[in-house]
Amino acid sequence: MASWLPIVIIIFAIALVIGPVVWLKPSSRDRKLAELRQRAAASGLKVQMQPLPKSQDTGNAAVYSAQWRNPRRLQTGWGLELQRMPHEMNFDGVWDWRNGREAPEVAKPPLKEFLEMLPADATAVYANDSGLGVQWRERSGNGGLAALQKALDTMRPVIEEAIRQQQSRSEEAGDEGDSLR
Fold this sequence. Notes:
The chain is of the alpha+beta class and 181 residues long. It has one domain (43-180). It is 44% helix and 19% strand. It has a six-stranded antiparallel beta sheet with strand order 1-2-6-5-3-4.
């Protein structure tokens, strides 16, 4: 029995060293998410983690954002969040405005079209100073990323022009007066 004790101690010591290393190794899901986010970043999307909407429990999910082409004079700061249940008072069935802050009226038809193009696991749409972003749980993988990229490529320019603030008539009249001189 005494001759086995050093072997048992050596095996235990090896397990103590290898255990934490194996524990820190990323899972296959983590590797797939990293690859998905890297592919999105390479295509020009900005990826960052944000808390899920209150209606979607706790936790975080990635927000994939496309930058505005011309960020001047845009009415941003609004967002749409997925709700637990559809309601006629919501913007589009299960989507409703975050904190009651709505996009301009002219942007609402393209936003409805945009929502229809998103992957099923999308949880929010945000318009901020840096761009138009979609939060999604990334469960739909490569297919979801392709749908997200297509939706942003197609609808971001349309939504960008729809939320652009119109110049006031006095500014336009001043510009016309300047061009007549």
